[in-house]
Write a structure and sequence with these properties.
single chain, 7 helices, 15 strands, 26% helix
């Protein structure tokens, strides 16, 4: 079981560089375990060679839209998959990009970086305008050091990050989330992940609620997608936009030694992962009117799927940018979207 302990930091926002030795030791131990495997061993969650379609969006189409809407003087585009399994997704996107070459701007270069903890072969392969990099034995909870060691300078340079079924297995998911966000390109960089398990001093809050409140407290535009009919193992999907050059500030700190009764223990894939954070004085109460909701329907049973985002102009603009891509998926199911408005 991984447990996040720390002497409370004096900062009002979480700083992953202040991780206590206990946390760092658990991160090292986790990587050592994964690095013994020469391929991904997560069964159904080894990655996939087609889009994950979180937030009911085909992310391949989303990346194409990001590229085509970027400033004309931008020629290099960086795509990062965190927890890449056997790197099938990166290969699948390369095939998609090459197939859609006529629909993309001329003169661009696309760099697809897939990272994971398993001891998969390191690959650098270029085909036409696409270059794929596969990195195994990669300590994703220390992005900065890992990329610096590889002479990759990706701070403020990554256009799209995707991670599926990875953050929920990390020792310090929030500290890692901050690092990943800081890699994004200001104003246009997007990160798409599913949720992860966290625990704060509020014993009644679910991980989904805590993640929603956490992102609301950052002030950045995001969309939270609620899959229909999810049980206790179902975690929401989150799409977040880096709107400026500022690093992500989350008003949490690592918790001092908590009692075992305070900890959230959750078993997933046969392993237990426990995290514990304390809200700081900067944590704000979120009122219902500070969120908007839109609902669409999926499948022949017309199951309602809900998306939430902050009631701000920036978040509204983000959702308007995403909405045609959601509609594209809905048309495949021949079901019309519906807007609910403020709730």
């Amino acid at each position: 079981m991984f447990t996040i302990f720390s002497i409370l930091a004096s900062s009002s926002f979480l700083d992953w560089r202040t991780r206590p030795q206990t946390v760092q030791s658990n991160i090292n131990e986790a990587l050592e375990g994964l690095a013994r495997n020469e391929c991904s061993t997560w069964g159904l969650h080894n990655g996939r060679d087609w889009p994950y379609s979180m937030v009911e969006i085909n992310e391949f189409e989303l990346i194409r839209s990001i590229i085509n809407n970027a400033p004309h003087n931008q020629t290099d585009f960086w795509i990062l998959e965190i927890g890449a399994g056997d790197c099938q997704w990166g290969k699948a996107f390369e095939i998609f990009a090459l197939d859609k070459k006529e629909d993309l701007r001329d003169g661009i270069r696309v760099h697809i970086v897939s990272v994971g903890g398993e001891n998969i072969p390191h690959v650098k392969q270029t085909q036409s305008f696409c270059t794929r990099y596969n990195f195994g034995c990669f300590k994703v909870e220390e992005f900065e050091a890992e990329f610096q060691a590889k002479n990759f300078h990706l701070q403020d340079s990554v256009d799209f990050i995707i991670s599926h079924y990875c953050f929920r297995h990390l020792v310090d998911p929030i500290g890692t989330y901050i690092q990943a966000y800081n890699l994004l390109r200001p104003k246009t960089g997007i990160m798409l992940t599913d949720g992860f398990l966290i625990k704060t001093s509020d014993p009644n809050a679910s991980s989904n609620d805590l993640l929603k409140l956490m992102l609301m407290n950052t002030g950045v535009p995001f969309v939270m997608h609620v899959p229909y009919g999810g049980g206790p193992n179902c975690l929401n999907h989150f799409l977040i936009l880096k709107q400026d050059e500022k690093p992500l500030k989350i008003p949490l700190n690592y918790c001092a030694q908590p009692n075992d009764s305070d900890l959230l223990t959750f078993t997933w894939a046969g392993q237990e992962y426990t995290t514990h954070y304390i809200k700081t004085e900067n944590w704000k109460t979120i009122k219902p009117e500070m969120l908007r909701r839109r609902t669409h329907y999926r499948g022949p049973m017309k199951l309602p799927i809900q998306n939430y985002y902050p009631a701000t102009e920036e978040a509204e603009a983000l959702f308007d940018f995403l909405w045609p891509l959601i509609e594209l998926e809905l048309k495949k199911r021949e079901l019309p979207p519906k807007e609910d408005g403020v709730f």
